[in-house]
Design goal:
alpha+beta, four-stranded antiparallel sheet, 7 helices, 6 strands, binds zinc ion
């Protein structure tokens, strides 16, 4: 069971509360919604991204064996960089499925047959002639397995979780490198993470009722709820600043009026004192 009052293992604080830290609770394993959400969102996006990137390859090479070798005469235009990206991601996902299966003592998910392996048996990546559909489905099998166990995984060795997190961040890097047709909207708010002023990309929900995905160009991820709270606060802050500016303007105007009034009072006083006496004398 997760103790809702225990803070995230990484001592994450709600953005903007660094001075008086509002620690985010460990709502997923030993981690907060932000740490979990960054991983979960990347895993959600990976299959679609894989299909998109593999779809950019106009000819998947028609290779007869499973090995992609850039030195071989690949039919052009064969986009080696695109294939390498998805293949690396796939290899990474297979690696982590195996690692976590070992920790959790559950049977690991088997990668596709004809997968590209080292002689030692380590999976390197996808078969060279994989179609976007097959490649995406393979990635989805791995990400589905990981997502189903993500809360459990987030109770395991923190060092390995950090490494897993770092590896999975590749999804954001790949998303930036091979942008989907659906362009993100950029937030007016710069990234609120300390020392980071990068732009924040907001991707609309993938499906009706889904959540939008929010991350800055440097890879800081924000759960929808936290992002909405931050933008709301920014809007409130701006309205408050505008209100204060108007109040100051009014105060300045009032002060100017007071000065003018004082001058008039003095004139009236002098008039009563001297002008009046003069009138009395002349009466
Ligand atoms: Zn956290
Ligand atoms: Zn950032």
């Amino acid at each position: 069971m997760t103790d809702p009052l225990k803070p995230c293992t990484r001592s994450c604080v709600r953005a903007g509360t660094e001075d008086t830290p509002d620690y985010l609770p460990a709502t997923h394993g030993a981690y907060c919604a932000r740490c979990w959400g960054r991983l979960d969102q990347a895993l959600i996006q990976a299959p679609e991204l894989a299909a998109h990137i593999l779809g950019n390859i106009t000819n998947t090479g028609g290779a007869s064996d499973d090995r992609v070798d850039s030195s071989r005469d690949a039919p052009l235009p064969f986009n080696q960089a695109a294939f390498d990206d998805v293949s690396e991601l796939y290899g990474l996902l297979v690696y982590w499925c195996q690692e976590w299966a070992g920790y959790l003592e559950v049977r690991e998910i088997a990668p596709t047959a004809r997968v590209w392996r080292r002689v030692s048996g380590t999976v390197i990546g996808l078969p060279a002639n994989v179609t976007p559909e097959k490649g995406s489905a393979e990635v989805a099998r791995m990400t589905g397995w990981l997502r189903d166990r993500l809360d459990e995984i987030l109770t395991l060795a923190p060092d390995d979780i950090d490494e897993f997190d770092e590896g999975i961040k590749d999804v954001w890097r790949m998303a930036a490198r091979w942008p989907l047709i659906e362009k993100p909207r950029y937030s007016k708010m710069p990234c609120p993470e300390l020392g980071c002023d990068a732009r924040i990309a907001v991707f609309p929900p993938r499906a009706p009722g889904g959540v939008k995905s929010v991350s800055c160009d440097s890879g800081h991820y924000f759960p929808e709820e936290e992002y909405d709270a931050l933008t709301l606060r920014l809007t409130v802050d701006r309205l408050e600043q505008a209100r204060q500016a108007r109040a100051e303007g009014r105060a300045r105007q009032a002060a100017a009026r007071t000065e003018q009034q004082k001058a008039e009072d003095v004139r009236a006083h002098l008039w009563r004192k001297y002008g009046g006496e003069h009138r009395v004398e002349s009466a």
